[in-house]
Amino acid sequence: MRILVTNDDGINAPGLRVLEAIAQEIAGADGEVWVVAPAFEQSGVAHCISYTRPMMVSELAPRRWAAEGSPADCVLAAVHDIMKQSPPDLVLSGVNRGNNSAENALYSGTLGGAMEAALQGLRAIALSQYFGPAMRDLDDPFEAAAAHGAETVRRLLDRAPWHGEDYRLFYNVNFPPVAAADVLGLKVAPQGFRRDMGFGVEPVISPSGRRFLWITGAPQQQPTHPGTDAAVNLDGYISVTPMRADLTAHDILEELTAIE
């Protein structure tokens, strides 16, 4: 198997090394693991592409490339240039430093890379490591992902549907904020929503008198509705959420015919 690995935390991120090890285990001795990742951190860029400017790509080592662009850019660079003669069988994006459960999924560059792979007709999985107080004393905050990542990917490859001709399915995986030994299992869960949460801004004045705005986040330890992704993560379970890039609100299409 030929696997492409990308992320949004950048080519030197510790989570990328974890994902490379997972990918190598899945690919096996006869497989290939290719890395095409952003040269610099691209957290929060979602499915952004560098449509109005070119991006530089640099080969750092055999099968290892850095691109001055977003995770979606990295997938495009791999599929249509770097790996053009031998496209990947699977795209893995992550392991993100922090969860991409609930509304975080909408902003995530990690998911943006997986989404672009799905739009390119490839099997794709985004993987993220939830952080929390129970991990404070761990030597490796990614140990849950490292210990359970390969088995989770295998389950999806062997048992999950991958259909879809237009907006193909891809999967969002979040590992819980606990030690590897404390992971209770895996649960399929819909995307949740953290109420009374979300991003905001905090104004600051620089020493030169200029006004800047920092984007602010929110506490991540508030569970979503029972059975949804962040809730099961905080209960100690790996969440698996099937996703598509189709943004249509299918549940109200029939109701909306009244305006025709």
From TrEMBL:
**Per the UniProt entry, what species is this protein from, by scientific name?**
Poseidonocella pacifica
Say if the entry is tagged with keyword Cell cycle.
no
Q: Which reaction does it catalyse?
A: a ribonucleoside 5'-phosphate + H2O = a ribonucleoside + phosphate
Q: Which domain of life is it from?
A: Bacteria
Q: Which cofactor does it need?
A: a divalent metal cation
GO MF annotation, one: 3'-nucleotidase activity
Q: Where does a divalent metal cation bind?
A: 8-9, 43, 96
- Name the SUPFAM superfamilies on file: SurE-like
Family matches, as NCBIfam families: PRK00346.1-4 (NF001490), PRK13931.1 (NF010541), surE (TIGR00087)
Output the HAMAP family linked to this UniProt entry: SurE
Q: What is this protein called?
A: 5'-nucleotidase SurE
Q: How is the cofactor bound?
A: Binds 1 divalent metal cation per subunit.
Any Pfam family: SurE
The Survival protein SurE-like phosphatase/nucleotidase domain sits at 3-195
